[in-house]
Design goal:
This protein is about 50% helix and about 20% strand. With about 210 residues, it is an alpha+beta fold.
Length: about 210
């Protein structure tokens, strides 16, 4: 009888090895699956944000914008107020956006020409305000021979942390674009969409 005593042990060990291998394979595949949902969600929000920003930019009166000086002299002018009202409307219309504003570069400084905030807001930027925290990518945008629409890395400034879409506004005289239309999204909103994508992935896995 002793010779049959240990017959079950190898079988039991093989079963344990099988389940361990299956679990490891499931764990690895789940990780790959969730990573796919994360990156796919990030790609979706990027595509959507780019499309929305470009459509919004096309709705602006670029001739009125290029008449702005980008200095405190614009304050109170009909042209400035018209542009500012348009920006405020877009900020209300773009889901998830916090700030909408116009930038230009003067004397190696990034200048805020107009924004979507009311004058009594603590986040309001008057025309001509220097954006001292402007990232290098903004300077690269204005120095490029042909500026193109872009999405920033995370930008941290006095107002918070943002993912920013920057769209060049065509110069009415046909020359190189000198003004950028920008849309700021709080980073938590940007990545919340991706987290919800992970949630959908978990639902499918389990």
């Amino acid at each position: 009888m002793d010779k049959y005593k240990n017959i079950g042990k190898p079988i039991f060990k093989n079963i344990i090895r099988l389940f361990t291998s299956l679990y490891a394979a499931w764990f690895i595949m789940s990780g790959i699956f969730l990573a796919y949902f994360w990156f796919n969600s990030i790609a979706d929000i990027k595509r959507n944000a780019l499309t929305v920003a470009e459509v919004a930019a096309r709705s602006l009166d670029v001739e009125a914008i290029y008449r702005l000086k980008g200095t405190p002299e614009d304050l109170g002018t009909e042209n400035y107020e018209s542009v500012k009202n348009s920006l405020a409307h877009l900020a209300d219309s773009i889901s998830g956006a916090r700030f909408v504003y116009l930038l230009t570069e003067k004397e190696n400084k990034i200048i805020i020409m107009a924004d979507s905030e009311p004058p009594d807001s603590s986040a309001y930027s008057p025309p001509g305000q220097v954006y001292s925290e402007a990232p290098a990518s903004f300077f690269q945008f204005f120095s490029a021979e042909t500026p193109t629409t872009s999405i920033s890395t995370v930008i941290k400034d006095r107002w918070g942390k943002w993912k920013t879409i920057t769209v060049p506004l065509d110069n009415p005289d046909g020359s190189r674009p000198e003004i950028a239309f920008n849309v700021d999204y709080p980073t938590w909103i940007w990545y919340d969409y991706a987290v919800r994508g992970i949630g959908r992935g978990l639902f499918l896995i389990f």
